[in-house]
Design a protein that fits this description.
Mean pLDDT: 82
Number of domains: 2
Order of helices and strands: HHEEEHHHHHHHH
CATH superfamily of the largest domain: Arfaptin homology (AH) domain/BAR domain
CATH architecture of the largest domain: Up-down Bundle
Helix content: 55-70%
Low-confidence stretches: 1-30, 105-109, 163-169, 171-180
Shape: elongated
Structural class: mainly alpha
Largest sheet: 3 strands, antiparallel
Number of strands: 3
């Protein structure tokens, strides 16, 4: 499927958006889910050093590898970051779901207020459930520990792994290696993936910026409308002859104001988070493709070294065999995850934009009905006045 096809609807699709979404189903979707995760109950913690939020993570499962069927732990944002880094370390060519940034975009909400905390809670909930639904990541040992270990156990487990600086060093070296020299034998499929992601990244970033601008303008419109309506009510007090009409206008503005507020909530809850999530996904996928290229680059360099050396051929041949296996595993993992990610992305985009379209229709229909009802009442009043003037 091309990017153009992702962003447009086929004429052969059902006309009803709801029926279109209902007919879209993943072929590899499991029939029976055996892992349920909920992130809720945010709680503030204030210490002499820092202020932070913890979230309750409740897990229910029927899997045999878990010692219990239900777990309840509390996790802070840093714990989620640790889990993401461990998944990237264990599965460098799988697409790890994005986490919300540490700080939210300027102009949206203040850090640690209720709106920010709820936005983050939803994002963390989605992050864990995307991992739980992934056919490989869901069985990762660190993921299991994250869901089940008490705070002190998790802290102890964290200390066993490589330090942050070590991980950062590995990442920097990997990216530097992939950037320094081009990959000679990159399969065409991965070149196409890279081109696709460059285009996708540009488009999704533009959509994200426009959506935030629309939301900002909608909020400004809403704030002005809130001030606009009461003026007609105040005016009606000094205009006895048209007082009812002025109050009617004020009532219409108030109803449209409430509809606008509802529409804004739909944008902030449905459109903005999805678009920004895929902005983060585009960055993650570019990183995954670079890591795949780095593995390919290691193989290419060993093959070049073997061609230039007459001694130690057996040793080089053994290393090349291992690297070929590593490249094949990386390619297969990325291919499978790429197809799965595209299915998810297409479903999310279709359902999100359909939801926005339906909300817009409801909004304009509600506002139109409000003003049409007001105009109809004014015409009735005019006819009544005209009839009374015609009578002898």
């Amino acid at each position: 499927t091309s990017l153009g096809e992702v962003n447009s609807f086929s004429p052969s699709m059902p006309i009803s958006p709801s029926s279109m979404i209902n007919q879209y189903k993943f072929e590899d979707e499991p029939e029976l889910k055996d892992l349920f995760i909920t992130v809720d109950d945010p709680e503030s913690h204030i210490t002499a050093i820092e202020t932070f939020i913890t979230y309750r993570v409740v897990t229910k499962t029927s899997r045999g590898e878990f010692d219990s069927s239900e777990y309840e732990v509390r996790r802070r944002y840093q714990d989620f970051l640790w889990l993401k880094s461990k998944l990237e370390e264990a599965h460098p060519t799988l697409i790890i779901p994005p986490l919300p940034e540490k700080f939210i975009m300027k102009g949206m909400v203040e850090r640690f207020n209720d709106e920010f905390i709820e936005t983050r809670r939803k994002a963390l909930h989605k992050f864990l459930n995307r991992i739980a639904d992934h056919p490989t990541l869901t069985f990762n040992e660190d993921f299991k520990i994250f869901l089940t270990a008490q705070a002190w156990e998790l802290s102890s487990h964290k200390k066993q792994g490589p330090g942050l600086l070590s991980r950062m060093g590995q990442t920097v070296r990997a990216v530097a290696s992939s950037v320094r020299g081009g990959v000679k034998n990159r399969p065409e499929m991965f070149t196409e993936m890279n081109d696709y992601m460059e285009t996708f990244s540009q488009k999704i970033n533009v959509l994200d910026k426009i959506a935030h601008r629309i939301y900002k303008e909608e909020r400004e419109y809403f704030n002005e409308m809130k001030e606009y309506g009461p003026i007609y009510t105040l005016w009606s007090a000094s205009e006895e002859d048209i007082a009812d009409s002025l109050k009617g206008v004020a009532s219409c503005i108030d109803k449209c104001c409430k509809a606008t507020e509802k529409r804004m909530a739909g944008l902030s809850e449905n459109l903005l988070p999805i678009l920004h999530e895929y902005v983060l996904y585009s960055e993650i996928l570019m990183g995954v493709l670079k890591r795949r290229d780095q593995i390919q680059g290691e193989l290419d360099s060993k093959i070049d070294a073997l061609a230039n050396k007459k001694t130690e051929k057996d040793l080089f041949s053994e290393e090349i065999g291992k690297l070929e296996d590593k490249v094949e595993c990386a390619n297969n993992a990325l291919k499978a995850d790429w197809d799965r990610w595209k299915q998810n992305m297409q479903y999310d985009m279709r359902s999100t934009f359909t939801n926005v379209a339906e909300n817009n229709l409801r909004y304009y229909e509600e506002c139109l009905a409000t003003w049409e009802s007001f105009l109809a009442s004014q015409r009735v009043d005019l006819h009544v006045e005209e009839d009374s003037e015609d009578r002898p």
